[in-house]
Specification:
alpha+beta, single chain, elongated, 14% strand, five-stranded mixed β-sheet
């Protein structure tokens, strides 16, 4: 009679089945001691209403990434960064539309040869930065990959981190999350305060000087206009010798009268008015 085989108990059977079904625990990623941050270069528009510029992680990932690894930038709303789960395959990489639904997406895939250790000389043409949200037309292009770098839709705030993935899409290492990054936000026209009391002292002084100059120019114009029109309405005084009744003509004769006869003319005789006396005896 053979030995009877003991069947495992119910509890042991459940444990064996759980060991077969339960997936092995995921190995924790290597944490790179690096925190992404806004570039320190003195540039205009480092942070705008739809973009922000990060410094490139040069000489930071070389010892943690292989040549075939891809360096991705993860962008998430600050309150959604804690819920982000690293994708395990290339198909799970979230594209930009996921930002509006899940609060995060991945963009700007780079290789190690695109991040050399040699930092360009200040003032050179190449500036080592990564501008997030710098491609406004990528979503309209159907041939563009889905991981485009489209402008950000709101002021945020956002947090970012770098994630290293191999050729199959398996994560290999990651950096810390950045500090919250808030974009600039324009003011509504109705919210702008135009009350003069809010203006600075320099603006008040400049406005006062301009108002005084405008008043002086107006007074000068009125004075010149008054002088001009007064000369038209009031003619200048007529000279004394041209006044009516003051003209005196000299005595003259219109006919030649011999001197001997002129002496015999009566006193007060005006030539041309009184008839000449008869010369006959």
């Amino acid at each position: 009679m053979g030995l009877s085989q003991r069947q495992p108990g119910p509890l042991l059977s459940l444990l064996l089945m759980g060991a077969l079904v339960w997936p092995p625990p995921c190995m924790s990623l290597e944490l790179i001691p690096y925190t992404p941050q806004i570039t320190a270069w003195d540039l205009e528009g480092k942070v705008t209403a739809t973009t922000f510029s990060l410094e490139q992680p040069r000489c930071v990932l070389d010892g943690h990434a292989a040549v075939a690894n891809t360096i991705w930038l993860v962008v998430a709303f600050s309150n959604a960064s804690r819920d982000f789960r690293n994708p395990q395959t290339l198909a799970e990489i979230p594209a930009f539309p996921r930002l509006l639904t899940d609060g995060h997406y991945m963009t700007l895939p780079l290789s190690l040869d695109q991040l050399p250790c040699e930092d360009p000389v200040r003032g050179g043409r190449g500036i080592p930065l990564l501008r997030v949200g710098n491609d406004p037309g990528c979503l309209a292009d159907l041939c563009e990959p889905p991981f485009c770098n489209t402008p950000l839709p709101s002021p945020g705030p956002y947090r970012v981190k770098f994630l290293l993935m191999d050729a199959s899409g398996s994560p290999q290492a990651e950096t810390r999350w950045s500090d919250p990054i808030t974009l600039h936000q324009g003011k509504a026209p109705g919210s702008i305060d135009t009350w003069p009391g809010r203006r600075s002292g320099d603006m008040i002084v400049i406005a006062s000087i301009l108002s005084s100059l405008a008043g002086l120019l107006l007074l000068a114009f009125l004075a010149a206009s008054t002088v001009r029109f007064s000369s038209l309405w009031w003619p200048e005084e007529v000279p004394e010798q041209l006044r009516i009744g003051s003209f005196k003509g000299k005595r003259y004769m219109t006919h030649h009268i011999p001197p001997t006869e002129a002496a015999t003319l009566p006193v007060g005789y005006e030539p041309g008015l009184d008839p000449l006396p008869s010369l006959s005896p």
